[in-house]
Amino acid sequence: MDTSPKLPIALKTLEILENFYPDAHCALDHRNPYELLVATILSAQCTDIRVNQVTKDFFRAYPDVDALAAADIPALEEQIRSTGFFRNKARHLKECAERIRRDFHGIVPATLEELVTLPGIGRKTANVLLGNVFGIPGMVVDTHVKRISFRLGWSHHQEPAKIERDLCELLPAQRWTQAGHVLIAHGRKICKAPVPLCGICPVADRCPKNGVKKYR
User: Fold this and answer.
1) 148 and 124 share a domain?
2) Over 60: is that where the pLDDT of 147 sits?
3) Phi and psi at residue 21, in whole multiples of 5°?
4) Distance of CA 57 to the CA centre of its chain
5) Is residue 168 situated within a structural domain?
6) Which residues neighbour 60 within 8 Å (Cβ) at sequence distance 6 or greater?
7) What is the CATH number of the domain that holds 153?
8) What is 103-172 written as a DSSP string?
9) Cα–Cα dist 153/133, whole Å
């Protein structure tokens, strides 16, 4: 007789998705915290593929915080134009680098509280950095995670911060970072907006959208 504790249904669902997307990972190319910081700022309203194309040349021109802080705004805008919203992004990038140099001795900070004080950095970007370069569990809530969390019944909120709180209560901390990668992969490939591909979904039999009432 199996006397082991039963995993919550949500965690079992996550494990199925983890097995379905074993290679899920951060799609933004980076080698250090500075590069991921830049890439996540550029990724707003832009595909990861485009960001990776742009950052190849960007990091040659601006290899570190000091170079970015000293950047000329018009040149910076031209460098990132194809990512969209390039004027705001250029301003945030330069101001962010200046703040890191001034307040954090040129080192990208490694706490959520410090990261969100930087221009252009919200909780989502901070959690991307925490989980992927600092080894600190972070639950990223982007449009895919928000959509899937609602469809699976894991959260009924609309605000990302409240969704993040719900997911962090539902899943163990050591799974947060990978859960974000897996849910994003699922959102891009199967659980799409506006019409999900339920016929090939590995967790369709666990989804409230398909009449399942127990989801937590």
Assistant:
1) no
2) yes
3) -120, 65
4) 23
5) yes
6) none
7) 1.10.1670.10
8) HSTTS---SHHHHTTSTT--HHHHHHHHHHHS--------HHHHHHHHHHTS----SHHHHHHHHHHHS-
9) 30
Burial label for 74, CB within 10 Å (0-12, 13-18, 19+), is: exposed
Indicate which CATH number applies to the domain containing 128. Answer: 1.10.340.30
Supply 109's token pair: 């900070």
pLDDT tens digit sequence for 93-136: 999 999 999 999 999 999 999 999 999 899 999 999 999 999 99
What six digits make up the tokens of 46?
Answer: 């832009």
Considering the domain architecture, whether residues 143 and 204 belong to the same structural domain is answered as yes
Q: 13 and 40, same structural domain?
A: no
Among 24, 29, 54, residue whose Cα is nearest residue 144: 24
Instruction: Tell me how many helices (H) and strands (E) the chain has.
Output: 11, 0
Its domain, for residue 198, covers: 9-24+139-210
CA atoms in the 13 A half-sphere facing the CB of 41: 26
Give the count of domains, the chain.
2
Evaluate whether residue 1 is within a structural domain.
no
Q: Tokens for 19?
A: 């097995």
Q: Which residue has the tokens 């990132």?
A: 80
What's the pTM?
A: 0.89
